Amino acid sequence: MKLRYHIIIFVCFLIFFNLFSRNPENVEYWYTQQFYLSYSRFMLAVTSYFSFSVGDILYIIAGVYILYRIIRIFKKHSLWKFRLLHTAKIGIKFCLIFYMLFNITWGLNNYNFPISHQLNIETIYTDEDLEKLIQKIIFTTNLLHSELINDSLQALQIEKSTEEIIKDGSEGLKNLADETNWFTYRTLSVKKSIFSLPLTYMGFSGYINPFTTEAQVNYMIPKTTLIVTTSHEMSHQLGYAKESEANFIGFLAAHSHSDKKYVYASNIFALRYCLNTLAKNNPNKTEEYLSHIYPGVIDNLTENTIFWSNYKGITDSFFKFFYSNFLKINNQKEGIHSYNKFVALLINYDKAYKLYPSFEN
Q: pTM higher than 0.70 for the full model?
């Protein structure tokens, strides 16, 4: 098909897309609860027969096909202006098709009601609110660490394999669904990504394939991080597209697990985000709170940072910049920083539902 026909179809799609996505109620009912739910169930039923990620294989096939088309162009045309022109046409066609299919199969979930609307909670907080939550999480995490390890100097080790952690992710989500009735639990699946090493250099813990709705996790990341990441990616399968909301659901799913080590991992995840948020405005306060955390808990807090620092480089910065702008295009205006809105959800959820027990200093 010629490029102009692709552009005409794309313009028609944009007109419909913009009209439809303006109304979160329409997106929630007609898309998330009707079309996406049926489509996702079908795709997961099909891909569940394969131990590997079908979506990853499709990415490889698409990449090989595009490379093949470009090689043919270079063989057919000797002049660089024709080579660049036809290569650009292929690139534009690919981007237009990708964007349309992405939004049809999964991306429109970015435009439904925010979870704060569903829970009827605020999304703003004060520094005092943040510090109160940090105190409660530190107290709870230290206490849980003492239950799991009778040594405040030792970090908690997660002995379970990646496969076991992936399988256990379903329990936390099912418990959360039963406790809250926010969503109807259905059979979901997470697979180890065959691109885990490239993902690590790119700075990503996991992702959902929007075309097959398969969730992939980077099996190289620390186990305490993998626990919440697994639930995070599964929440994307449920239609929670915004990264802050996936962080929130992923945290709560791990926090609802029967295994206390999973609850501990969820606390480490929450505490890391809260302390990082506080450090941006009040680093001295952060140091003060760190002094109240058991050394073993500190080791678990820092293992994620140490892991990523070993792979950080120019590729990490490039892909984070690219992904940040991709999120902005898809109704997540804060870009890569939208992950941090998880803190606002956590603070206000704790206010409304008393997630962490209060205590006197």
A: yes
List the 215-217 sheet strands across, edge first.
190-192, 215-217, 206-208
Per-residue pLDDT tens for 91-114?
999 999 999 999 999 999 999 988
- Burial of 109 per CB tally in 10 Å (0-12, 13-18, 19+): buried
User: 3-state SS string over 252-304?
Assistant: HHHHCCCCHHHHHHHHHHHHHHHHHHHHHHCHHHHHHHHCCCCHHHHHHHHHH
Residue 336's pLDDT band, with cuts at 50, 70 and 90, is: very low
Q: Tens of pLDDT along 175-199?
A: 888 887 777 777 787 898 888 998 8
Distance CA 256, CA 307 (A): 26
Q: What is the DSSP string of 201-216?
A: HHT-SEEE-TTT--EE
Helices 80-105 and 54-76: crossing angle in degrees, nearest 10, is 160
Cβ atoms of 303 and 220 closer than 8 Å: no
| Crossing angle of helices 283-290 and 127-148, rounded to 10° | 20
Question: Radius of gyration (Cα) for the chain, nearest Å?
Answer: 22
Residue 328, classified by CB atoms within 10 Å of its CB into exposed (0-12), middle (13-18) or buried (19+), is middle
